[in-house]
Amino acid sequence: MSDGTIVRWLDRPRWKSPLPVWSGDPPAPIAADWAVITAFPESNVSPAVFVLEFLTQGGDVGGHFQFETLEIALDQAKAIAEIDPSAWQACEVRVPHSLAALSAEAFAAMRAHRAV
Fold this sequence. Notes:
Helices cover 18% and strands 38% of the residues. The protein has two helices and seven strands; from the N terminus they run ββββββαβα. The strands form two sheets. It has a five-stranded antiparallel β-sheet with strand order 6-5-4-1-7, sandwiched between helices. It has a two-stranded antiparallel ribbon with strand order 2-3.
C-alpha cells in the first residue's frame, strides 16, 4: 500500500474510553488516545481505501478497519465507537503506509490542521 493522507482525526475526550471494541490475543478493549481516518489512493494493485484506526499517544495501532469510502468509515466509527460524524476534525496530514511510524510532528500537525 502506498503512503496515505489522514483526512479526519479525533482525540479521546470526545468518546468514551476504553472503546467498545475488542482486539488482540487475548481480546481486550481498545484503549485509544486518537482516532484517524486515512485515505490511501487507488493503485494498480489495490482500489482506494479509507482506513479507520484507533491509536495510542505513542502511535501504536489499537484497532484497524478498512472501508471503501469516507462516508462508510464515518458511519462505522459511529457504529463501533459511538463517534458522531460531525465530531471529526478535517485535516490533511501525509503519512507513511505504516501508521505506527507516526511522529509527534504528525500528531501536532493534526491538532494544527495542516499538512506535514
